[in-house]
Fold this sequence. Notes:
45% of the residues lie in helices and 19% in strands. By secondary structure, it is an alpha+beta fold. The chain has 2 domains: 4-146, no CATH class; 149-197, no CATH class.
Amino acid sequence: xxxxxxxxxxxxxxxxxxxxxxxxxxxxxxxxxxSSIYGTSFSNNSLSGINEYSDEIFGVSITPPECExxxxxxxxxxxxxxxxxxxxxxxxxxxxxxxxxxxxxVKTQFSNPLIHATIIQIFRHLNQRYFSDFKLSxxxxxxxxxxxEILKANFAKYDALLDSFHIGLETMPMxxxxxxxxxxxxxxxxxEKRDRNNQ
Length: 199
């Protein structure tokens, strides 16, 4: 739970990877954000088949304050992924899990709208130079609208939802013999009722 964005795509050309890494590291340095480097070049500057990949990750990640890590990383087939995605979904035989290998989610809820907007602008810039088939879905709606007021309103909405949930946990204890599922169902019903009454 918490405001996030989700993205997927591929690198346009394998030879662009070192330049992408350098640019992302420069951005991280400017903002004073943590960074990590993975593989810095694809083998023979080429990509494996679209449905084939090794157990290596190529690219770079950055971690803004109070934000989950953002991966500008790729599998050997050139598709975006992350070390955790490769570990959890890379060898899965469940076809329903296959899309998760290539869909990265980042929670920004505990940072602030300015950091969220900055990250989205970084993606706009990098997308023009390095990515193909890039898709980003932003729960803050800044990617879609470029509107700071909508982004701030969405942050406020998620903050209120988390506050309501926290208050509910504190004021409504779990009853004897109540399952977790029944408890959370009762808690969410109370939160929804309170939100309707406050409108």
